[in-house]
Specification:
Blueprint: H1 3-10, H2 12-35, H3 37-62, H4 73-76, H5 79-106, H6 111-115
Helix pairs in contact: 1-2, 2-3
Length: 119
């Protein structure tokens, strides 16, 4: 309720002390939140953020740089690795174009029962 509405509800003779009491309560609330518990919460949150930022900076500063393994030309040219480079795309194409559609087809009814497919 606003001050004017309260004055109409309570009556003119009680209006002055009532408004004074309300303004004193509001003043006390403002003081509590700025200096009291509410202010402490805000300060703790700020302190927590600073602590988290400091911890993150410390972790990044302590991280050691990494280096890749040296290239060994004697190990890189293994004949099976070269065959795998050629066969992998062919196997992937067979999987997506032939095997997955076949699995979907077998997982549908009437074939599901005939082939014994279980979910």
């Amino acid at each position: 309720m606003r001050g004017a509405d309260m004055c109409a509800a309570v009556g003119r003779d009680l209006c002055g002390p009532l408004l004074k009491h309300i303004s004193e309560e509001n003043k006390m609330r403002r003081e509590e939140t700025s200096d009291g518990v509410g202010g402490l919460r805000r300060r703790r949150r700020r302190g927590g953020r600073w602590m988290a930022a400091a911890a993150a900076a410390l972790v990044m500063a302590m991280a050691s740089p990494v280096a890749a393994d040296e290239y060994g030309s004697s190990e890189a040219g293994h004949p099976l690795r070269i065959v795998a480079y050629v066969l992998h795309p062919i196997g992937l194409a067979l999987d997506y174009l032939l095997l997955r559609p076949a699995h979907w087809l077998v997982s549908q009814e009437p074939f599901k029962t005939a082939f014994g497919h279980e979910d």
